[in-house]
Structures are given as C-alpha cells and as structure tokens.
Amino acid sequence: MSHTPTIAVVGSGPIGSAYARLLVEGVPDARVVMFEAGPQLTAVPGESVRNIADPAEKERARERSQGPQAGDFRESLGIPAGVVVEGMFTARQGTHLIDFGGPGSGHAPTFPAAAAATNVGGQGAHWTCATPAPAFSERIGFIADAEWDELIAVAGDLLHVQSAAFADSAVGGGIRSLLEEEFAGELPEGYGPGTLPVAGDPQPDGSMRWAGADVVLGPLIDPSSPLSERFELRDLSLVRRLELEGDRVTGITVEDLRTRETYAFSADAVVVAADAFRTPQLLWASGIRPEALGHYLTEHPVVISTVAVDADKIGRFATEADLDAEIARRAHNPADPVAAVNRIPFSEPDHPFALQVMYAENPPFQLDPSHPQAGNKWGYVNMGYGMRKRPRFEDVVTFDDDELDYRGFPNMTIEYALTDAETAEIEAATERLRRAGGAIGEFVAEPRLLPNGSSLHYMGTYRVGQADDGTSVADPWSRVWGVEGLVVGGNGTIPTANAMNPTLMSVAIAVRGARRLAEELSGALVAEAGR
Ligand code: FAD
C-alpha cells in the first residue's frame, strides 16, 4: 500500500474530536491532524475548565478562550491588542461575542448575544454538559429510529453521558415530586419530570469530573495508546482556506499564530467543525458557497427565572438532613458546585419546550439582604425553558468579501427574527414556568426572555438534507454537496427545530458522517492495495 490517508480536522471541540476519534479508530493507518485556532488551556487537551479547582487558574483559562476579547491574554492568540474594543454586551465567561463592538467586529444587532469560544476543546471546554437526546420532531426524519437510537447511544458513550446523574439527591427528588404533582396527567408517559442527563464521570466523593473534548478524544491523547501515534493536535493554528482542485478538496492553508507563518497541508479529506458561524465563514472564504450556506439559523429562545425553594413545600419530600447532605456534596467541589439537576423534556404535541431546573444554595445574582427570601435556608432553583425556532431561509449569517473581520475573514452579519409561531410558544412556556416556579417556591427573579443568541446553541447554518435542492449544505452523511472529500460537523448540521441542548445530537450526526467517511477512505485503501 503506497498511500496512508491523511485527514485534516478543523476545530477541536467535541464534534471535531468525535471525527478524529472515529477516523483514527476506523481507518487502518490513517493519520488525523487537528487544527485549532485557539490555545490549549489544560494539561489534558480539551478538558473542561470547570474541572480546574484553582479559581485564578480557571479565570485565566476562560480569558484565554475569549478570542478578540481575550484581555491580557489576547496576545496568546496572536491578535494585536489595538483591534479590541469591548462591546456593550457581555459574553458568558470563556466565550467571545461575534458582535463585540470594536474594529473588525461582526454585526448582529438582531442576535446580539451570539458568541463563540476559541481554545482547544472549543465551547466544549466551557459547556454546562447537559446532554438530553432529541425526541419527536426534533429528530431527523430521514434517519430511521433504530439507527438514530444507536447513533445517540454511541454519541453518549463518546461524551460519557450519565442518564441518572445526581438521581440519589433527595433535594433533587423533592423538586421532581413537586413538579410531578403540578403537571400530573399533562405529560406523556416517559416525558415527565426527571433527572437531566449530563456528560461527565461521577467521582467517589459524589462530585463530577465534567466531560470535554478530552473524553471524546480518549485514546488519541493517551500516550500509552498506539492510536495516539496517528493523531496530532496543533493549537494556535488558524485554518485560513480550504484548498480545492476542481470539485475535490485537497487540503488546507494554515496560519501558525505563534510564528505568523502560513503553510499548506495536503489531506485526502477535510472535516470542518469550526462552529455554526465560523464553519460557513471558512467555506465562504474558500469559495464554497452553496445556496443554503449560513441560512436556516436557529437557536432556542430561552426564558429564565430564579425561585427560592419553599421549606413547607419541599419539606413534604425531603428532610433537613437531606438538605445538609446536599450542601455537603456541593462543598466537595466549591469551584463548581453543581448537583440536583432536573428537567421536563420536550414532548409533542402539548409540551414542545424543554425545562431545565438547577438547584443552588445561592441565587446567581446579588439578592438584596433585606429581600424576604435572602439567605433562604432551602436555597434556590435556577429554572429556564428552551423553546424551538422554526428554520427559515431569512434567518441567516452572511459574509462580506469587501469588509474583513478582525481575523481577516469576510465579515459576518446575522439577521434573525422571531415569528408569531415562536412568540406563541414563548408565551405558553412562560406560563408553564410560572406554574413550575409556584409549585417549588417563590420567584426572586421573574421569568424573562433572554436576548437572541443567549442559548449558545446555534444550529442549521450548514444543515444536512436529503437532496441538493438549495435547502441544505450537506448530504445525509454531512458531506458538502458537490465537493468531494469535504465533511462538515457541529450544530450547524442540525436541520430540525428543537428545544434541547444540541451537542449530543451533533455528535450523533458526526458518528454517522465519520462512519461513512471511514468506509470511503478504507474502501479507497482496499482498491489501491488491489491495484
Ligand atoms: P466548538 O466547541 O465551538 O469548537 C469549534 C472550534 O473550532 C473552536 O475551538 C474554534 O476556535 C475552532 N475554529 C474556528 N474556526 C477555526 C479555524 N478557521 N481554524 C482553526 N480552528 C477554528 N451544549 C449542550 O449540548 N449542553 C450544554 O449544557 C451546553 N452548555 C453550554 C454552556 C456554555 C457556557 C457554552 C459556551 C456552550 C454550551 N453548549 C452546550 C454548547 C456546546 O458547547 C456546543 O454545542 C459544542 O461545543 C459544539 O461543538 P463543536 O465541536 O461543534 O464546536
């Protein structure tokens, strides 16, 4: 055999990592090189920064992920200090806004909270790790149920999903019981209040080691595994262009952000998993411009609130000793005290929204000490509903060849609007949230709709579809229509309107794509060997 396949993966988040893992495992002798624009934050590549115990170290890791807003650590990304002006809107820690308000900033007045992370592990180094599976119309219609269930199971294994995390928490159980009473008889069997599946590994002390791209990469970053010899991760390596010969991708052009040198890298296949905005931007910048590219942008509108847990209500299901046990468990990881995470999942036709309920001893904001619920003994729940957004061609990120962004790419403009369909469901979900909150205690922060883009779950911008009819960018195996050897991965592939956190679904779609690509590359090897 004369030729060992080389695969370039652009982006080191959970989806790029899933491709890397499955291709190294699935294609004999294949070499996978992963290119990541951001820096490596942790000794173990792609680990969740939530696992960093030292608060100062954690803050530094988050700052270094913030691309154009990386503060003192901006230089680590090779971005000149002068280009950055902080915007009016503040991104979540570890992320940077697309529309950050300075020179080279994108334009997103109708989607102001749009944000990205630029670091090894991508947003997956900062995520909350909620991993519900899509249900009902959230699933992709052209993938049969049996196959879909298997893909979700494999994706769950890759992400170390725990379906019954914190199920033993009596406080969590009490909250579920209160929600069950409130919504009794209204929800289909199997879709009532339950624990929220999360990605992580439970530790003997009851805390969680949160999963990031590290667990997805698995043996690829374990030096004792022979698979690691066929994998390489290059951080601070910005992929500037996908190179084509005719309708086949032949490699990429990369800028080493340490040296500022640009080099060519040849590949038999390229997987682009560079998030829902930067993936279409890279395709556009490379002259790959299918009609649907950047269109059909969706996310989840989000309504959130905080409720003080009522002692009498929860006291029917949990004791003060249970509360002490809950607080003791949270104290095991004071830097990230998450436990008792519940939900009511999406179901149709009557509950097309997803509720997430997180228990905490303190509200996420300073509560006036004179507030009657300040210092509430039984703590608080942060509750939020995610709703769906119907995919529409006119919700779009476009790219301007004449105006470059801070990285020198065609700049982005996002246009997005909620329609009557969304407004009606937001109202219905807000009403549910009021009922759920009232069942548990008293609101200390009333339900409110967050600005567009706040979900951090951006979907649809390079959606998969069954036909090359202008409504999709990639085929059912995530191969870009009309470009051989080019595969896209990430939330942008999701074509459906859904209300749940999308990463598990995107990994499932990636499993399907990676298997097909592995077959193709292995088939080419067999053919070559036979010649
Ligand atoms: P990303 O993780 O975004 O990774 C893309 C990577 O590509 C980035 O590191 C970027 O630097 C790199 N890149 C971009 N352009 C280039 C280029 N030209 N060259 C080289 N590299 C490039 N999802 C859930 O399902 N559940 C949750 O509970 C949840 N909570 C979240 C909480 C927070 C605070 C955040 C920020 C996100 C959350 N998400 C959650 C979203 C989740 O993190 C993403 O769905 C997931 O990370 C997407 O994976 P990805 O690999 O497609 O992209």
Task: State the gist of this model.
With 531 residues, the chain is an alpha+beta fold.
Give the tags.
531 residues; 10 helices; alpha+beta; globular; 5-stranded parallel β-sheet; 6-stranded antiparallel β-sheet; binds flavin-adenine dinucleotide
Question: Can you walk me through this structure?
Answer:
The chain has 531 residues and is of the alpha+beta class. Helices cover 24% and strands 21% of the residues. The protein contains 10 helices and 21 strands. It has a 6-stranded antiparallel beta sheet. α3 (145-159) packs across α10 and α4 (170-182) packs across α9. The model is unreliable at 83-88 (pLDDT under 50). It binds flavin-adenine dinucleotide (FAD). Residues 10-16, 35-38, 92, 94-95, 117-119, 122-124, 126-130, 238-239, 273-275, 278, 282, 456-457, 490-491, 501-503, 506 line the site of flavin-adenine dinucleotide (FAD).
Secondary structure tally, helices:
10
| Rg from Cα | 23 Å
Gap between N and C termini, in Å? Answer: 9 Å
The percent of residues in helical segments reads 10-25%
Largest sheet entry: 6 strands, antiparallel
Q: Strands across the major sheet, in which order?
A: 6-15-16-17-14-20
Q: Mean of the pLDDT scores?
A: 92
Shape: globular
Name every ligand kind in the structure. Answer: flavin-adenine dinucleotide
Main structural class? alpha+beta
Beta fraction = 15-25%
Q: Which spans have pLDDT < 50 for at least 5 consecutive residues?
A: 83-88
**Number of DSSP strands?**
21
